[in-house]
């Protein structure tokens, strides 16, 4: 849905966008995710557990691989190889307050690591570690089954990341994101059921109760610093969680704007999602970003 995810709920991947979305999970979930970004390939493993009367707890591991950079001498011979990586560990907790409000928090351990092999006299290894928090909330207007859901998340609140020395320490890219999603039952349908993850995500009711369209929009702005705001819009149409077809558009900076399309399929306790973005107006020599996830509920 064009990465309009601040209102995402009922899935473990919500931890990366708005931890409040974890609170509506009705089953535990394990997931594997991968993506190819302009910066490099990414990998993630998530595991979240639903505990009745307590909420949802769990964690995730995330890695961004910037690729290997070769250092050459005056004869263009490779004398060293530099390998920058970014790692994140998330520990999350989320819970519902009443029937319509969800709150969540992530603790994040962030590491930026640069490894060098070969002649590394001018490019020493570097390793920086810092800590951060994500906090978020979601409200469903009209009760638990309301058609309108509003979300807010503040991400990457924390200390500077220092790799070599204090003068070169970088602020974390703190952001505030506000978004809304509106669910429209197709003709003949009703406002339907709550969107949590169940064993297969299916229940009693007619086909009309299951077919719907979801329209979402997010606005993201820097938190505590100057910068341009970014906007994303998306549409999701489908039958329950069995089959969802998605599309969206991201209005972002640095030439990374563009449309995206995706699809999700679930059967029983197993689900697969795939998405692809199409960059427009960029000078990056890179393939269009793709995303894949596999998840199991239990």
Topology:
Layout: E1 29-36, E2 41-51, E3 55-65, E4 69-72, E5 78-97, E6 101-118, E7 126-141, E8 148-158, E9 175-185, H1 207-210, E10 211-222, E11 230-239, E12 243-251, E13 258-267, E14 270-277, E15 290-297
Oligomer: single chain
- Main sheet properties: 14 strands, antiparallel, barrel
- Considering the protein shown, what is the CATH homologous superfamily? Outer membrane protein transport protein (OMPP1/FadL/TodX)
| CATH level 1 class label | Mainly Beta
Q: Which secondary-structure class do the elements indicate?
A: mainly beta
What characteristic shape results from the CA principal axes? globular
CATH topology: Porin
- Helix percent reads under 10%
Number of domains: 1
Termini separation (Å)? 26 Å
Q: Under the CATH scheme, which architecture would be assigned?
A: Beta Barrel
Order of helices and strands: EEEEEEEEEHEEEEEE
Q: What is the spatial order of strands in the main beta sheet?
A: 1-2-3-5-6-7-8-9-10-11-12-13-14-15
- Strand proportion, as a percent range, falls in over 45%
* Rg over CA atoms: 21 Å
Uncertain residue segments: 189-194, 196-205
Number of strands: 15
What would you note in describing this structure?
The chain is mostly beta strands and 298 residues long. The protein has one domain (12-297): Outer membrane protein transport protein (OMPP1/FadL/TodX) (Porin, Beta Barrel), CATH 2.40.160.60. It has 1 helix and 15 strands. It has a 14-stranded antiparallel beta barrel. Residues 189-194 and 196-205 have low confidence and may be disordered.
